[in-house]
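Bit of a strange request maybe. I'm writing a small parser for structure token strings and I need a real example to test against, not something I typed by hand. Could someone generate the tokens for this chain?
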Amino acid sequence: MKRFLNQGSLMLLIAVSLPAADTARLENRRLRVEVDRADAAVRLLDKETGEAWALGAPRLVMQDKSTATIRPSGKVTERGGTVRYRTEQGIEFQLQLLANPPSVEYSFDKAPPNVAEVLLVDKGLALGPGVNNYYALPVRMGILLYPEGEKPYTRRLANYAGYSMAMLGVVKNGSALLTTWSDPYTTIVVDYAVEPRKNLSLSLSLQKSARSVRFEPLGRGGYVEIAKAYRPVARQRGYLKTLAEKMKENPGVARFFGAANFKPFAFVRNVPNTRWNQTDKERLNINFTFEECADLAEHFARDLGIDRALLVLNGWINGGYDNRHPDVLPAAPEIGGDRGLMECSRRVHALGPGWVFGLHDNYQDFYRDAPSWNEDYIMKNPDGSLRQGGVWAGGQAYLICSRKSVELASRPQNVPRVKELFKPDLYFSDTIFASPLYECFDPKHPMTWVDDLHYKTQLCIYLRKEVGLFGSEEGREWGVAHSDYFEGLMSHKTRWQQQRPNDDIIVPLFEIVYGDAIPMYTHQSDRPRIDAPNYVLDHVLYAEMPVYDFGTHRYWTGTQQPQRQRGVDESRTVFARGDRFSDRRDQFIKNTCEVLSPLGRVTALLPMTDHRFLTPDRKVESTRFGTDVNITVNYGEADYATPRAVLPQYGFIVESPTLIAFYARSYRGLKYDDPALFVLRSMDDRPLVSSRKVRIYHGFGGNQVEFRGKVLKVDREQVISGAEQ
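Reply from user aminoacidic:
Good idea to test on real output. This should exercise your parser:
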């Protein structure tokens, strides 16, 4: 029997073959789906690779924590490219073969009230040991899990807190499978067993409103192909909105391209008897006055030559950082008050359009000492009690129900007044993407996880529309289309690189999907020290900018030396070398900005198109952006040779038509006794081979560089004009 299925604009021939007596089967040219009539176990076959994917039989978890086995009750029917069956519990399941792209939608109707969750996949998609067998999971930036290790474990990833994207990938014998869903009440459960043999298995738990999961075999491929296959899904769901598209609505988005992030913690009030202040007396920490914040920006712009940057003030509000929210005004009188902050804004804006003036705020936390404290705004637990947040500098915070957050932010004394007084270009609202989704049980403003996502999105939309540019902490895919930058997602590659549980291997899944849609900075608490060269490589590899570390007050005058500078590992101060500045933090910022800022501008509108580990120990990595921006970095102790350079430990090379940057032991046959840092940058957007204005920056090491067949001596920096070609 033959049928035709019209999926979108694609006509695909569906052959419902005569199944064996014990199996219901759907089949097209690319995919076969089989359902066991006895126990509803599902098996997918990728006909391109011959790889079979066993999903297993679904299982129910009841409200009393007992489990129930799924068995079809009555007939398992095949009709119109769909297999349907009803279970003994009265739940109807269906598997539908889809044409564009070839995939299968696995779904069920609403479960009875006594069912807590449906394990649509129950310890299925199992993997044994093998270099081509792994799970690609959207934990923050992304991780690979192999069936390796000597200790068993279980990991639950739920609720857009455990995962950053509603997808996962499985690679088995080099064959790839993309799995996607749309409802946040879908939880990933990974189980690793070592007995009787090493084995990874995966479950997908669907609760409450979650109803379906889609499986898309991709043929031969790995995590890069899985991430690329998810991009059209993200586009369809409205999550993927590229920077090029955002620029059509707001050209100011381009101000993020290659922009360093300077974020001074101006003022912090630590209330007594907390983990932040274990004394019985209030403690005030003044790191910068508003005048000194302006001095800081002018120092970076004029002394270091940084022409594109964010200056986002922390601790400007009344009471200081993490205090008295959501009542922010007047600006902290201890560091200059409203007049001081207004003058700071004026001076930063005077530095030119490349400098973005921003303010850090929070519309999730409510403090009891806020003048407008009102329990009606707070999330409620099932028992009616107030939902507590963290204990921060201002003490115990309580969580604002996101149904009420726009109401608070839009009060005349909040964002509208802040905008009128201080004229920020950017507003940063803390925690929005860092927190899990919440439920609220207040009958006046009840909320599911789906509701929470919606209302958090509305807060993003409001702040962005009101101020112009907007960002928040960490990063989740649902925030991409409504934000201009994330702060914190890059820290998965920097900070957590050294703290990987269960031998996680970090890969740029999120970057491949959304890298040309949102700049991704490190977290404000994750700033690169001068002796952290791995941070530099991480940012070069992903073409992202850091949140820079620096001193307090007017640190560059030598009068302030923060404790962070103590205990520096001198053997690792690779990128703090040079003779331009007396303070090595400035030298570090200068050297790294000279590499990262032009790289960020070159790659801003380009998707990441490839990522690879080039050595078995994964110490050398490469990325590609678009078709012609290629990057290689070397974390390993041994030298690594590329076609044009030899890279020492912490060496890198960036090659593109308009930008060459490297820290290398040799480049284009020119050897360095002392490995050199160079940046060659076209200033007229023409390829370097034909540009009429090329700037060459020399950071340290050997001072000669090959350019257009000549060896040039560059002590610090040199601009080669058309007359010198």
